[in-house]
Every structure is written in C-alpha cells, then in structure tokens.
Design a protein that fits this description.
Elements lengths: L1 H22 L5 E4 L5 H4 L11 E6 L3 H15 L8 E6 L3 H8 L4 E4 L3 H13 L3 E4 L7 H17 L3 E3 L7 H10 L2 H4 L12 E10 L1 E2 L2 E2 L9 H4 L7 H12 L11 E13 L1 H8 L18 E13 L2 E12 L7 E7 L3 E6 L9 E6 L5 H17 L4 E5 L2 E5 L8 H18 L6 H21 L2
Parallel strand pairs: 1-2, 1-4, 2-3, 4-5, 5-6, 7-12
Antiparallel strand pairs: 7-13, 8-9, 10-11, 11-12, 13-14, 14-15, 15-17, 16-17
Amino acid sequence: MKNFFGALFICTFFISCSNEMKEKKPFQFIIADPGHFHSALVQKTMYPEVDSVVHVYAPAGKDVDLYLEKIKGYNSRAENPTHWEEDVYTGDDFFKKMIDEKKGNVLILAGNNRKKTDYILDAVNAGMNVYADKPMAIDPQSFEKLKSAFEKAEQKKLLLYDIMTERFEITSILQKELSQISSVFGELEKGSADSPSVTKESVHHFYKEVSGKPLQRPAWFYDVTQEGEGIVDVTTHLVDLVQWEAFPGQIIDYTKDIRMGSCRSWNTALTNEQFTGSTSEPVFPDYLKKYVDNSGLLQVKSNGEINYSVKGVHARVKVIWNYKAEEGGGDTHYSIMRGTNCDLVIRQGKEQQFVPELYIEIKGKPTKEFSAVMLAEFDELEKKYQGISLEPSEKGWKVVIPKSYREGHEAHFARVTENYLRYLKEDFLPPWEVPNMITKYYITTTAFEISGANK
C-alpha cells in the first residue's frame, strides 16, 4: 500500500509539473501608469502566447480605476470574454517597484505623454521590451531621449515599438497595394508645397464611445504639456502611413531624406459643460486655468498641420479635433495618393455613411486598354483579398470591400499586438522599422517647434 501511495504521489507530482510547463507562456505583460484607454484596448482580446496574469503598477487614482473597470468589462462580457488576472500595485514609488520586481517581459505604456519618454528610457535601461502607445515623444527634448532609448534597445537586443493601428485599416492597406501596381497607378508624383502628392487628414472627437460606453477622459488630456499638442499626437499615425504606404520597405533617414516646410497649430474651444461631459470633472482644475479665455472657454491646442517632403515627395498631414461627431458619425479619415495614371482616394464623409471607402480616380478619360489592364490587375489583387470588387464611380471606380474586412479601430489593437509578439518570437524586426520610427518622431517634434516659433 505504501508503494501504491508513493507511486501515486510521484505520478501526481509529475503531472502537476507537466501542466505547469504546458501553461508557461513566453510573454507576460506589465502595465505602468495606464492613463489612456488604449492601455485597456490592448487587452480587449487574449493572446495564446501571453500569460493571463498582468502586473499593473500605477499611482492610486481615477486613471488606474478606469483602466481596471474596462478590463473587468472585457472579462465579464457575454461574447468571447477575456480572462485576465490583474495583479495591481498602487503607490507613489510604482515605477521603481516595477523595475525592481520586473515581473514580466513586455512593458505596455499608454498614458501621460509628458512622462512617457522617461518611462521608455528607464525601462529600456533596465532591460525591458517596451510596447508604447503614440506619441513616444512630444517635443525636441523628448525626441533626443527617445533616440537614446532606441540606441540602448539595440545594444541590449530589446524591442521598443509603438502601436500603429492604422496600418491595419483595410482601405489604407488596399491604397498601399494599388499604389505599388505601376500599370495602374503609374509613378508617385512629386507634388509641391501647394499641391502635395500625399495628403492625409483626420478628424477626431473629444466625446466618443469606446467598447460601447461613453469614454471618460482624464482631465490632464486637455493639458498640452501633459498630452502634447495635436501636431505631435494623432499626426504620428498620419506621418507613419505616409512612410509605410509611399515608401514600403525603405529606410528613411531624417538627416538626409526629410525637408520640413510650413507647420501650424490652432485651438479647439470647449465649454465647462463639454469638459464635464467628457471627463466627469465638474470644473476646470487649476493647471488648466491658464488655457481658459475671458469668456470661460477652455482653449486646447489640439489641431495641427505639417507640410514636408520625403525623398523629394511633398506630403501634408492634418488633424482636427471637434467636441462631438454629428449623429451617425465618428472619427473620419481622408487620404489621397497622386499617381501619374490615377489618384487613390479614401473618403469617409456623409456620402460614405461615415465608413471609409477607397476610390480609383482616373486622370483624363479612361481608355478601353487602361480599363482592361485595371480589371486584370484587380483580379490578381482579389486573390489576395478575396471578395473585394470594383464598381463604376464618377471618376473611375470604387473598391467594394466585404464586411468581413471592416474591423473597427478597437480591433486593430489586437492586430498590432499580434504583430509585435511575432517580432519578439522571431527575434526579427524589419530593418526599416526603427529608423522610420525615429524619422516619424523627428517630423512631429520638429513640426511642434516650427509651429511654436510662428506664434
């Protein structure tokens, strides 16, 4: 009998060890100071290679409470619930404790942008991979720190990466694909400062819904010294798309390939009532009062425009923030790439029912020969993106995109994260990614400097 129980104990021990080994995941997330809702959106889905236990370090307060509330909502939803286990530490020494304990191998940062670049550099110096929401730098001083962080990451063989969700939007993907078909698009025009070859504009809203609920923004979101001006914030996505679409797979060196042009920034005015509607705070806090004008309106420098050229190609990016979208609307995107044969245009207005649509607009009158080439090339593209088709439009064709490709912005966070985890697993990053990230933040932070000099 003793032998029986001894054998049973040994068997149970080895089964237990075996299960632990099976359940061991290669990646474990750490969340630090999650002040922006994007930190929660990364966890809207589960990832097979990521441990379900997430270690959270933050100062006590509303920011971390709102983050935990969103995670709780994802865990308790009826359809495809997540099963994250949040191990939370709150205290003024949260960041030091996080680095001292180092309980995970991927640090996720999405919060106050004034502190973010320091967090990035300190974490990389401590030997941690960093997956950061944009922007990773908001002024020339933080840009220099970011460059140091990338240098340290390379030395320590770490992956520092930002969350570029817009690369996974289907109209942007197809715009890029079509621009590479020379028999259709021709060559990318050089354009001019007055008529850029590539233009990208987006309109955003302070009051919006996220995961089916009204978004509650932190009050500091409206302080441009903490959030960053609009010209360094959402423009990050637009500058990234210009590089990713117009120069795929190419290294862009900011010291040689970029020429900055005119840059400007301007305010969006919010009433106290609108501020309360988006933050749940009854009055403007003291640190925002310097932005309140004589009529009681909060002036937020949230809008920006950057004119510049990349390898001789003129580009313009522009971001506008309004308080709330009109009925049935939301954030919108406009983009045009000008080719010698046709323009590729993304529109997302009323006519498109606020859904992004891609148009192929022919220059001049389309010939039968060009139409035949267009249809043949599109048939080849359809093999890669099954179900897409063409329908005639006023200036050429509209690309008809099946609903299965119409993932929303929130779903794109999972796509970027899956891509990042793949890079980590393969220990490989395309050689253009890091230099192009550095170039991207050079453009936005230099634009901030130029627009400030014009005030």
